[in-house]
Specification:
Oligomer: single chain
Strand content: 15-25%
Radius of gyration: 24 Å
Largest sheet: 8 strands, antiparallel
Number of helices: 11
Number of strands: 14
Order of helices and strands: HHHHHEEEEHHHHEEEEEEHEEEEH
Helix content: 25-40%
Length: 395
């Protein structure tokens, strides 16, 4: 089993690093998206996995980064039979539209036909002018090579490493933003008129309230010393909620269909320089409805007036689209200062909103904002792909 996992891990890494250096043709990217999404969704659930993805993203030609990612994939394949099966399907690519135009007719007793002029007979494997000793290790290697060749033909040059590491600004689970700098409260998005469907967008909407609740981190997913606030999580009635953008446009948050709205509050551990963290998960009936809701929540986060000032915050890009801001303001009547860090992310048909609050007026903790945003995004993606959310908050 370790030999099979190792061979499949090698194939996956060679496919995606080969694409980055021009080793494949741009025949299409459906299979490439499947391989990249599968690896990323599996590895992003652990710190070691994220480190391996980040290493390859930084330098796809670095041998140590390639080896680290290969080992992370191999361990995941060896430990998870379902992941191993899905990887085999992804590497094989989509089935052909029609059978091959020719077939090899010679038959050999005790031999395996590899292709025209190539065969396995007794103790040797012949591939044209190349002869390989017929051992178990050689057969495993050939299986990996065959899967690699099929996958290479179905991957696009540009999408390979981006899909694996999540560097694409509108499809990243935890990668740094590589797109343009946006105005305050405005995320990086694909250029108008482009089409780049992602697996999050294609995933079925999550309409089960129990599954939506699982996206919210529970006590076991929090850092040591943290706690879920009493009475959390709660289910809210999301009705007639509208965000007004800077240009005066109204963007309904809860008028685009039936929306599940679940919220939870968290109490920080000792030494934190903020008072609380609030997480909201909005599950929409479709990705299009969630996209409209995103505009509303984004406008809601960026709303400013004489009593509060909002500026853009620098966080990595998450999900299909994301934005983050910081707010400082004065409480009417008391004159006391408060500050918040706010983020919103859309993953397909799900929105997640994180708010870090400091009632003492100091700068809101961006480390906590980023950590919770990254975690809840990963948990939302797991729920979209019908996997129980397990990602924990790491500060």
């Amino acid at each position: 089993m370790d030999d099979v996992a190792g061979s499949m891990a090698l194939s996956a890494v060679q496919v995606l690093t080969g694409l980055a250096t021009g080793a494949a043709t741009a025949v299409g990217n459906e299979a490439g998206r499947a391989v990249g999404d599968l690896v990323r969704a599996r590895l992003v659930t652990s710190g070691d996995g994220r480190a391996a993805l980040d290493g390859l993203s930084a330098d796809p030609a670095d041998p140590s980064a390639v080896a680290g990612l290969q080992e992370a994939i191999r361990e995941a394949l060896a430990a998870d039979p379902e992941f191993r099966t899905r990887m085999a399907v992804a590497l094989a690519g989509p089935p052909p539209d029609a059978p091959p135009a020719h077939a090899v007719s010679p038959q050999y007793t005790g031999s395996i036909i590899i292709g025209g002029g190539s065969k396995v007979r007794n103790s040797q494997i012949s591939l044209g002018p190349l002869t390989i000793t017929n051992t178990r290790a050689a057969r495993v290697s050939l299986t990996g090579i065959a899967a690699l060749l099929v996958a290479l033909l179905s991957l696009g040059l540009y999408r390979g490493v981006q899909l694996l590491t999540g560097d694409d600004s509108h499809h990243s689970a935890a990668g740094p933003s590589s797109g343009r700098k946006s105005p305050a409260g405005t995320p990086s998005r694909p250029a108008s008129g482009t089409s780049d469907a992602t697996s999050d967008a294609d995933a079925s909407a999550v309409r089960d309230a129990v599954k939506v609740r699982q996206i919210l981190p529970d006590a076991a997913s929090l850092p040591q010393g943290w706690a879920v606030a009493s009475g959390s999580p709660t289910t809210q009635q999301c009705r007639s909620r509208v965000g007004i953008s800077k240009d005066g446009q109204s963007h309904p948050i809860c008028e685009t269909g039936s929306v599940l709205d679940l919220q939870s509050e968290y109490e920080p551990g000792p030494g934190a320089d903020y008072n609380k963290v609030n997480v909201e998960v909005l599950a929409y009936p479709s990705a299009a409805a969630a996209a409209e809701g995103f505009l509303g929540v984004e406008a809601e986060n960026a709303d400013s007036n004489d009593a509060k000032q909002v500026t853009q915050a620098t966080l990595p890009a998450y999900g299909d689209e994301s934005s983050a801001v910081t707010m400082t303001g004065t409480v009417p009547g008391s004159g006391s200062r408060v500050s918040q860090g706010l983020s919103v992310v859309r993953c397909g048909s799900i929105l997640v909103r994180v708010v870090v609050s400091d009632d003492d007026g100091s700068t809101a903790g961006l480390d906590a904002l980023n950590a919770f945003t990254r975690t809840v995004t990963a948990r939302a993606q797991q729920a979209l792909h019908d996997t129980t959310p397990t990602t924990a908050v790491e500060l």
